[in-house]
Specification:
By secondary structure, the protein is mainly alpha-helical. It contains three helices and no strands.
Length: 168
């Protein structure tokens, strides 16, 4: 009995194995047919894809060349701008230095002018104002003398006090 059972089991295993091989063969055949159909559909597209790829490569090369030229131009412009900025900075520094020197010169000239103006004012004050005060004092004295002689009256107490306060 055991050998019959083993034989049946072995037969079932061989049948299942054969059935799976059959299913696998059918699946492989269908896969082969699908690949063939896909190949037939894709084959006409291969030349178009090659042409598109070649065009893309050409466009990429042209864009790379133009980008390289633009980068070179930008680099040249940046160098030119840097040179101009450096020149402007040097000019600014020179102008600032000259401005400082001229400011110092103007300051010295103004100090000299103000000193001379003060000297002139001192001379005018000494030579013109002193004689004017002296003449004014003499005129006031002559006026007081004439008033005293011609009017011959003594001033009132209020007037005398007021005059004294002005001198104090």
């Amino acid at each position: 009995m055991q050998s019959e059972t083993a034989l049946v089991l072995l037969s079932i295993a061989v049948a299942v194995s054969s059935l799976s091989l059959l299913v696998q063969a059918i699946a492989s055949w269908r896969l082969y047919q699908s690949v063939r159909r896909l190949q037939e559909e894709v084959s006409p597209l291969i030349p178009q894809a090659k042409a598109a790829l070649e065009q893309a490569q050409t466009t990429f090369r042209q864009a790379a060349a133009e980008l390289h030229e633009a980068a070179e131009m930008a680099r040249n412009i940046m160098e030119s701008v840097q040179e101009q900025v450096d020149g402007i900075d040097r000019a600014r520094q020179e102008i600032a230095a000259q401005w400082r020197v001229q400011s110092e010169r103007i300051d010295l000239v103004l100090e000299d002018i103000l000193g001379r103006v003060q000297d002139v004012v001192g001379v005018v004050h000494g030579t013109v104002m002193r004689p004017v005060r002296e003449v004014s004092g003499m005129v006031a004295g002559v006026k007081a003398a004439l008033q005293t002689l011609l009017l011959a009256r003594r001033p009132t107490v209020d007037r005398a006090t007021h005059d004294d306060e002005m001198f104090i």
